[in-house]
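Morning!

This is the sequence you dropped in the shared folder:
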Amino acid sequence: IILDEIEHETFFARQVNEKGLSNIRDFVLGMNDGLVEILGAVAGLSAVYLYNPLIVGVSGLIVGVAGALSMGIGAYISVRSQRQVNQAQKEQMEIIFDVAPERAVEEYKKRLIESGVVKEIAEEITGKIGKSKEAISKLLLQETEENEIRSGLFTGLAYLVGVFFPVVPYFFAPNSYIALPFSVLFAGTVLTFVAVIISVLSGINVKKKILEMVVSAFTAAGIAYLFGSVMQSIFGIQI
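The structure's back. Tokens below.
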């Protein structure tokens, strides 16, 4: 049964990659970031604004939008930078091939040995490849097929989706005492769903992942609430 389960999870993960659905994992992780961070923020603000949940909701939304923009811009810069690095390396490799093709072959052999390949086998591989410019370039340089604009929008949107769940109760509840439990409930439900998806895509234990994510998020929210209570006591804020 265990072997069958492992085989099913492996097959599913392989199908996900083959069908170009690997972005699902990025979306889920981005949503998880937004959910956990904003849950902590609204929990802390709930201790300060006990009787004005609207302020908590609006503040959480503002922080969430700022976080989504930050995540989106970060993803855009990351993918674009990687593309620029790859392009620079490609141009450098072309120059090396034109001037000293044997140096490119040696560089590839060095990479193989550093990755754990036995020296004799590395020499055999490079001997068979020869001085093929196209073959060695593909092996040495990592291609980046991601679109930086799409990646940025995708990441920012995922974060924003995660923001929605812990924030929405504060726009309907009469006070933060009522809003916070619903916020925690919504967040816990979504985190469970997210943990299941991550577990299936990664082939790890579902129960452990659910426990890990839910406990981490609720611990962060609890600490944030305590910190908010301390700030409320120190500064005497009562709204």
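Headline: Residues 89 and 110 are 16 Å apart (CA to CA).

More detail when I'm at my desk.
O.
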